[in-house]
Specification:
Elements (H helix, E strand, L loop, with lengths): L2 E6 L14 H18 L3 E4 L11 H11 L4 E4 L2 E2 L5 H15 L3 E6 L23 H15 L34 E4 L3 H9 L3 E4 L2 E3 L6 H19 L7 E5 L1 E3 L3 H7 L8 E4 L5 E4 L3 E3 L1 H9 L2 H5 L2 E5 L6 H14 L9
Parallel strand pairs: 1-2, 1-14, 2-3, 3-5, 4-5, 5-6, 6-7, 7-9, 9-14, 10-13
Antiparallel strand pairs: 8-12, 11-12
Length: about 350
Amino acid sequence: MKKIGFLSFGHWTPSQQSATRSAADALLQSIDLAVAAEELGADGAWFRVHHFARQLSAPFPLLAAVAARTSKIEIGTGVIDMRYENPLYMAEEAGAADLISGGRLQLGISRGSPEQVIDGWRYFGYQPQEGESDADMGRRHTEALLEVLRGEGFAKPNPQPMFPNPPGLLRTEPYSQGLRERIWWGSGSNATAVWAAKSGMNLQSSTLKDDETGEPFHIQQAKQIQAYREAWKAAGHQHEPRVSVSRSIFALTNQQDRAYFGSSGQGGDQVGYLDEKTRAIFGRSYAAEPEQLIEQLAKDEAIAAADTLLLTIPNQLGVDYCAHVMEAILKHVAPALGWRE
């Protein structure tokens, strides 16, 4: 395992029991948590994107703000739903955020998960073409984004422009060199992992995937990673891919930890349905004393197969407590799992 970061959904709710009671709280605390993570030595600050929900939804202002407050930590998304995105406008926003960060952006995208409203992308002005599903539309938007991020000109310039143009066809600006190789695809199945490899994207695999074999979650996820790496090699790409997995992991180091999570790591995987046709398996949470946690995580085949581990954090418990959660893992658990070796 080379890198460890956090993944926040940025939940907020106007409840007295929540430390994150508004959208402003969620955004500002996300910035503060990224700063704290960098100070602790973590490798990444990643943020989930959901629309029509009391969660983080507009990633690029947040990513740019985090970039301006930090200097080393990777800044990522996990994931942006491409059914809702204009690829060209997204390329401009991503290029700007990446330049502000000095090339630290790791942009996780996907076709998206079940959302809060029915066909929410329609409200954003998008709809599948004839014969297309919404998943097809998301992949079509993705392919357009990847093409634009190559940085080649495609737009015919105005012969009488307001400002002088460089020669040839024009591209979207700003362009950030290297961003194309830092695009990740959030995959929930073996087939989409293979598609991501063929498309030259890094792989994100979360705490759930399609239940394709009935085996334990971590074994299915490890096989998904293996299929991805084989497809990457067969595609002949010239650079090494990266693979991340997400986990809910809590090292119980004090009474507060035990009160919050003392019983949450005792269960196993769970199986459910994302829709009428899709049977999914949800990976277990881990919560134990550090020594026991090391033993449990060492048996997780998907963590062993990935190079990046994203810790899902309970953001509504506040910045200080989430920083403590990360510090406990980085200090007491990660070194024994080969972090940064």
